[in-house]
Design brief:
Mean pLDDT: 97
Low-confidence stretches: none
Number of helices: 0
Number of strands: 11
Largest sheet: 7 strands, mixed
Radius of gyration: 13 Å
Shape: globular
Helix content: under 10%
Length: 114
């Protein structure tokens, strides 16, 4: 059974940084594309970033230049390093593999507030 567990969320001030992690089990991690999404209160889920099995990377325009996605295949972990956070980045962040019908973690809350 596939499990994804996010961690690293928290409360930070505008301009600060945060790194999220997603530990994956139940699949051969190195062969799977990993995605990050977020959902702010009252809003639809929003795509954030992708890192492919060959480390091909893509970002949404809203985070490009501020967020960096990475993966450690030896640790079955995907990470999202977030710089220069703004209140608009406040959301629950989810990692995913397999798209909408794939596997999801439970999310980790990121709150950016002064």
């Amino acid at each position: 059974q596939v499990q994804l567990v996010e961690s690293g969320g928290g409360l930070v001030q505008p301009g600060e940084s945060l790194t999220l992690s997603c530990v994956v089990s139940g699949i051969n991690f190195r062969w799977h594309t990993m995605n990050w999404y977020r959902q702010a209160p009252g809003k639809q889920r929003e795509y954030v970033a992708t890192i492919g099995s060959s480390s091909t990377i893509n970002y949404s325009d809203s985070v490009k230049g501020r967020f960096t996605v990475s993966r450690d295949n030896d640790k079955n972990t995907a990470s999202l390093h977030m710089n220069n956070l703004t209140p608009e980045d406040t959301a629950v962040y989810y990692c995913n593999t397999g798209g909408d019908l794939g596997s999801w973690g439970r999310g980790t809350q990121v709150t950016v507030s002064s």
